[in-house]
Design goal:
Length: about 525
């Protein structure tokens, strides 16, 4: 994926230049810009076909810092942090929505630009295929399938945020102005599932980390995971069990043994990874780097074990509800990994007599020696987005530099599979108990027998908290919206989806409803 290895560094830089032409456009009404950005391309050089798919990965992984935060912030596992210069972000966490807020438009517009990038790349690849030999044509089919998968995860995310959204079918953005009826969320999810069925015959049957050309790139199992997630949204639980079961039965995946290190450098492209956004400092303390801005997740104040390591912004806070839920369960490794504690936060927990005595690992000093100081915006910070300062490459000081961003993990697929079985699907391999207990065993939790849907959902809360809003969308999907009314918040079902950004309504009147 993006800057996947030194071997792909130069080729990715070329792709990056291609993406600059189309990736910075905020005017989707200019289809010619999207269709013709490679007008000078020599399609007889079929070996350059790789540039097109690298461009898709480049666009996909160039996520603005605000996009994952906006997708994630409304669950009962996370708070937006205190007042700052992003008040409407905090209001979104409270279910008070402002359709003029810049984050809404940024998420919508940039995802759609990148979806169109995928279509444009597919168009290019087909032009290369016209002049390629049989091997080149087959490789082109694989790359087109990969682009479909990347396109699918982006549509999946924005449909969960907005429900009814556009489904572009080509690189011609003018078609969006002709849409008379917006596809429903169910139609979007079915489209995603169908697209994965189309893509899978052409994808590599291997773990993403075994790819030699693009390590960590899309494979058959990435498509199966997205198919399982889309069908979970549809309530098609047998399809969920079948897709997830195929991943499980492949024996290509296993849980990374150390949950704490899974989200840090040792866990990069582990056997648990199904889809990550990949970033790298290329093992050097200066010069080129590819990175995501992790500062919004970090504490505003810390005393790092390595002097000079930058702190964060305090925009993303594990909720007190999540912390007490984890304490009540006797969680250790998963709680320590998920939450960075301040002294002020610890005192706030202990103000409740039921939590006056806390485990020793609940400390403002992490096991790596970073001290999380009190700061104004929040009581806690997200440990899953934390990189210890002693894992920074010497010379790099940015918060989280060199850290990948997990999107889909094998642990989630195990729990998705278990949920499908508790919802009535037939097993296609291991039992629901076995799937859940694999996840629990890694976390140091005792085994369960005869797991119920409630237990699976609790396990997902513990395992997947702070990750891509998975908790929020589970609660919406399952109709358990009462869970979202916590700490003074009042959630009503009409708040399930964000309003369409006003800037998009102005361009596409069909969104004005």
């Amino acid at each position: 994926m993006k800057k996947l290895s030194k071997r792909t560094k130069a080729i990715t830089l070329i792709a990056s230049l291609l993406m600059v032409v189309i990736g910075c456009s905020d005017k989707l009404e200019e289809p010619e810009l999207n269709n013709n950005f490679a007008g000078g391309t020599d399609f007889t050089k079929t070996e350059d076909m790789t540039l097109s798919i690298i461009g898709v990965y480049e666009a996909f992984q160039s996520r603005g810092w605000e996009q994952p935060l906006l997708i994630s912030v409304r669950g009962d596992d996370v708070n937006a942090g205190g007042l700052g210069d992003q008040q409407d972000f905090a209001e979104t966490d409270l279910f008070n929505y402002n359709k003029d807020y810049w984050m809404y438009n940024s998420l919508w517009e940039n995802v759609y630009v990148d979806v169109i990038t995928s279509h444009t790349a597919m168009d290019q690849i087909m032009r290369y295929q016209e002049l390629a030999d049989d091997a080149g044509k087959a490789l082109g089919d694989q790359y087109i399938a990969e682009a479909k998968v990347i396109r699918a995860i982006m549509l999946f995310h924005i449909s969960r945020v907005w429900g009814e959204v556009f489904i572009p079918t080509s690189s011609d953005t003018a078609e969006l102005f002709d849409v008379e009826v917006l596809p429903t969320q169910e139609e979007v999810m079915q489209h995603i599932s169908d697209q994965m069925d189309e893509a899978m015959p052409f994808l590599l049957d291997t773990h993403p980390n075994k790819r030699q050309d693009l390590p960590g790139g899309v494979t058959l199992y990435t498509a199966l995971a997205i198919k399982a997630l889309a069908n979970q949204e549809l309530g098609n639980y047998q399809a969920v069990a079948d897709a997830a079961g195929q991943i499980i039965n492949s024996n290509e995946f296993s849980l990374f043994p150390d949950f704490y290190e899974l989200f840090k450098i040792p866990g990069k492209l582990s056997d648990e990874s199904i889809l990550d956004m990949q970033y790298s400092d290329f093992g050097q303390g200066e010069g080129d780097r590819e990175s995501h801005l992790y500062a919004p997740y970090g504490p505003q104040g810390w005393t790092p074990a390595v002097d000079g390591a930058a702190s964060g912004w305090g925009f993303y806070e594990p909720s007190m509800k999540f912390i007490k839920f984890m304490l009540d369960r006797g969680e250790t490794t998963r709680l320590e990994t998920s939450v960075l504690f301040t002294d002020r936060g610890i005192a706030e927990i202990q103000a409740d007599p039921n939590y006056a005595t806390l485990p020793a690992f609940v400390s403002n000093t992490t096991r790596d020696g970073d001290i999380i100081n009190d700061y104004a915006r929040a009581l806690f910070a997200s440990g899953k987005h934390y990189l210890p300062s002693n894992q920074l490459i010497s010379g790099r000081t940015s918060y989280g530099s060199n850290k990948n961003y997990n999107i889909i993990r094998y642990a989630e697929i195990l729990l998705v599979y278990a949920e499908a079985l508790t919802q009535g699907a037939s097993a296609s391999g291991m039992t629901a108990d076995q799937a859940v207990n694999l996840v629990r065993q890694r976390a140091g939790m005792s085994a369960l027998s005869g797991v119920t849907l409630d237990q699976v959902i609790d396990e997902k809360f513990a395992e997947l908290g702070m990750e891509w809003g998975k908790r929020y969308y589970d609660m919406i999907r399952l109709g358990r919206v009462n869970e979202l009314s916590y700490d003074g918040r009042t959630f009503t079902e009409d708040k399930s989806f964000l309003p369409y950004p006003q800037a998009q309504v102005d361009q596409f009147p069909i969104l004005d409803k």
